[in-house]
Specification:
This protein is an alpha/beta fold. The protein has a single domain (15-291), classed as Ribonuclease Z/Hydroxyacylglutathione hydrolase-like (Metallo-beta-lactamase, Chain A, 4-Layer Sandwich), CATH 3.60.15.10. 32% of the residues lie in helices and 19% in strands. It has nine helices and twelve strands. It has helices at 15-31, 77-86, 104-107, 110-117, 125-133, 211-216, 223-234, 252-261, 273-291; strands spanning 41-44, 47-49, 58-61, 66-69, 94-98, 120-124, 155-157, 162-165, 168-174, 183-190, 195-201, 241-243. The strands form two sheets. It has a seven-stranded mixed beta sheet. The chain has a five-stranded mixed beta sheet with strand order 8-9-10-11-12, with no helix packed on it. Strand 4 (66-69), helix 2 (77-86) and strand 5 (94-98) form a beta-alpha-beta unit. The longest helix has 19 residues, at 273-291. It is globular and about 50 Å long. Bound molecules: zinc ion. Zinc ion binds next to loops.
Length: 293
C-alpha cells in the first residue's frame, strides 16, 4: 500500500549549512536535468502538472488559451516544452505566465515563452521593484546557466487583482515571507461537471528568511514574522486542492504515484492539506524564532 504525507518541508539547519549545501545538492540536477523529468499529468479537470522533480509548473486549460504558473529553471526548459506537447497542447496557446516570485528557479523559461510563443509574463509589482533596486535578489549566481537573465514581467500584479481568461478567474493575494512580493493564488479548477477550489502558495523556501540572508540582500530582518503573518492571513481560505511551487510542499510526487495505482481516488483533492501545509510553515517559523536564525 502506497502512503504519503500531505506535505514534506525541509528540515531546519543553520544558514551556513544551507548555503554550503545549496549548490552540491543541485549539482546532479544541473548536470543531468532530464533524469529529474516527470511525465506530465492531470491533477484534476483542467489543471495539469508540467514541472519536474525539483520545481513545479502548473498549467490551466481555460478553454480560451492556457495559463502557466512558473517557468522553472532555464536549463530544463526543454522538459517544460515537451510536457506541454505530451499533453497534446501547444506552447503557442499559453497566454499568461504567472511567476510566483522573483527567483531564478521560477522564472527561468519566461523570456523564451514570450519570445518563441508570445506569452505575456506577469509577476508581482513588489518583487519587480525589489529586483530593479538590487538584481542580486533574484539569486542568479546560483543558476547553472551563467547567461541567465532576470525575466522582467510585461505586467505587474498586486494584492486583490484578478487574472481572467476563458473559464478561469484567479484571485491574487500578497503572501510575503519567502520574498516580500511572493503571491498566493486562488481559483476553481473544473472538469466540466465538478469544480474544486484551488489554493497555490507561491513560495515558502526558508533560505530567504534567515537574518543573515536578509542582511546580505538588504531586506528587512523580520521575514520570519512576515511569513507568520501570511500563514495567519491565508489560514481561512477554503481550499480543496493545495498547490506548492516545489514538489515537497504538497508531496506531489508521492501523490502522483498513489494516483497511478489507485485510479478511483484523487489524493490532490483534500480539504485538510491547506491547513496542514500552513501549520507546518508556522511550526518552522517558530523554530526559526526560537533558534534566533
Ligand atoms: Zn524562491
Amino acid at each position: 500500500m502506497l502512503a504519503y504525507n500531505e506535505c514534506e518541508l525541509a528540515k531546519i539547519r543553520t544558514y551556513k549549512e544551507v548555503i554550503d549545501g545549496f549548490l552540491p545538492a543541485l549539482k546532479d540536477y544541473y548536470e543531468n536535468p532530464e533524469s529529474y523529468n516527470i511525465e506530465p499529468f492531470k491533477i484534476f479537470g483542467n489543471l495539469y502538472y508540467v514541472g519536474d522533480k525539483k520545481v513545479c509548473m502548473h498549467l490551466i486549460d481555460t478553454n480560451d488559451g492556457f495559463i502557466l504558473f512558473d517557468s522553472g529553471y532555464s536549463h530544463n526548459f526543454k522538459s517544460l516544452v515537451d510536457s506541454v506537447d505530451k499533453l497534446g497542447f501547444r506552447c503557442e496557446d499559453i497566454k499568461y505566465v504567472i511567476h510566483s516570485h522573483g527567483h531564478f528557479d521560477h522564472f527561468g523559461g519566461g523570456d523564451r515563452l514570450r519570445d518563441l510563443y508570445g506569452a505575456k509574463i506577469l509577476m508581482s509589482e513588489t518583487d519587480t521593484e525589489l529586483l530593479k533596486e538590487m538584481p542580486d535578489r533574484a539569486l542568479m549566481h546560483l543558476a547553472p546557466n551563467k547567461e541567465d537573465q532576470i525575466c522582467w514581467p510585461d505586467e505587474t500584479i498586486n494584492d486583490g487583482d484578478f487574472i481572467e481568461l476563458g473559464n478561469t478567474k484567479i484571485r491574487c493575494v500578497s503572501a510575503p515571507g519567502h520574498t516580500l512580493g511572493t503571491m498566493a493564488f486562488f481559483f476553481e479548477a473544473t472538469d466540466g461537471v465538478k469544480n474544486h477550489k484551488v489554493g497555490y502558495l507561491g513560495g515558502l523556501g526558508f533560505l530567504t528568511i534567515y537574518k543573515e540572508f536578509c542582511r546580505q540582500y538588504n531586506l528587512p530582518e523580520n521575514m520570519n514574522e512576515e511569513l507568520l503573518f501570511t500563514v495567519n492571513k491565508l489560514r481561512n481560505e477554503d481550499v480543496e486542492i493545495t498547490l506548492g511551487n516545489h514538489p515537497g510542499h504538497n508531496s506531489l510526487i508521492a501523490k502522483r504515484e498513489y494516483m497511478l495505482h489507485n485510479k478511483n481516488t484523487n489524493p490532490f483533492i483534500n480539504k485538510n492539506t491547506w491547513s496542514i501545509l500552513l501549520s507546518s510553515v508556522e511550526e518552522k517559523c517558530q523554530d526559526f524564532a526560537e533558534k534566533g536564525y
